[in-house]
Predict the 3D structure of the following.
Amino acid sequence: MRALPRRASPFVTRSLFPALFVAALHLSCGVGDQFCTEDQSPSEKDDDCPYGPPGGPKPPAADCPDIPQDPDGTCSTDTADWVNDVFPIFATEGAKKASCTSLACHGGDPATAPRVYLPVDDAKASFEALTKYDGAQKYPYVNTGDPKHSWILCNLEVPPGVGQVMPAQPGAMTPEELATVKKWASCGMVYDKGAMGSGGSGGSGGAGGAGGN
């Protein structure tokens, strides 16, 4: 009489599931999951193995160039400042525009805000928070000590040069808003030009200059 084949133990079968799952992940992603290839955007989220946050490598800091300062020689007569021009752009929310300071983004609970807290009603606190935020680039997002070496402009455009575009889609800045931020960034990142010359703050005076501290 021929012996019947032995059935696999349910315990053994169940114990193989984790190993099979891990193996499947490796087969689907391969080693490419660890590197950003030239033909893929670091912020792509629709890939089988997405690159952007939270599960993939970030573009190197070298992908974010320094910001030319006063390239057209007009900063002395025509510039923007944080208080009156730039912060209102970051804090304005509309039907088709998200703001950086919205409750769903950086303006919610300070304990749970992603990476940096930007209170919608406090331009000074928001400015200082951005001067203290280094992120993956390891130098300030808003670098008041060396304005050209800031990386704020590198995730405001579509596609972003670093990280994810901000404000989050579909709230990307309009061309006019982006031009204002670029003008401000190329003119020293002044906090409040109305206070300059009267003991107030200037962008290149450091984070403490934002409040005259």
